[in-house]
Amino acid sequence: MPKLPTPHYDKLFACMNNSSLLYFLVSEFPDITPVSITSTQIDYVLIVIKSRHITSNVRQEYRTPETRKLYRQEYGDFIDASKYYPDVFQRMINKTQTLIDDTAPGVEQVLKLGNF
């Protein structure tokens, strides 16, 4: 028997070096209207599935075993179309790598750049 769509949970990740800290909020679906994160400690909100979540009125169609069987293909098509986007993960990796690389600059790098 197919299962009902399970709720997803947003994840908050932090990356830190000696002098900096980055906060990433990683979410599967954009379930809410985007708001400014300026007044928070969150640096980046990353949406890893670039599509809308199934609305509650559509999820109602999956409430009984019979309707789950009836709409199984439709739900399967939605899941297949809702792919994770590697560019979002790559953005997080790049930001983290920049922070890691900036942790302990070598003397040669400092002399080359003229700052640290």
Short account of what is shown:
The chain has 116 residues and is of the alpha+beta class. It is 37% helix and 15% strand. It has two domains: 8-49 and 84-116, no CATH class; 53-82, no CATH class.
Describe this structure in words.
The structure is a single chain. The chain is α+β, with helices and mostly antiparallel strands and 116 residues long. It has two domains: 8-49 and 84-116, no CATH class; 53-82, no CATH class. The protein has helices spanning 56-59, 65-70, 72-81, 86-101, 107-113; strands spanning 11-16, 21-27, 44-47. The chain has a three-stranded mixed β-sheet with strand order 1-2-3, with helices on one face. The protein is elongated and about 70 Å long. The relative contact order is 0.18. GO terms for molecular function: endonuclease activity. Keywords: Endonuclease, Hydrolase, Nuclease. This is Restriction endonuclease, type II, Bpu10I.
Distance between the termini: 59 Å
Return the domain count: 2
Radius of gyration, CA atoms, in whole angstroms:
21 Å
The level of helicity is 25-40%
Order of helices and strands: EEEHHHHH
Q: How many strands? A: 3
Pairing-aware structural class of the strands and helices? alpha+beta
- Main beta sheet, described? 3 strands, mixed
* Fraction in beta strands: 5-15%
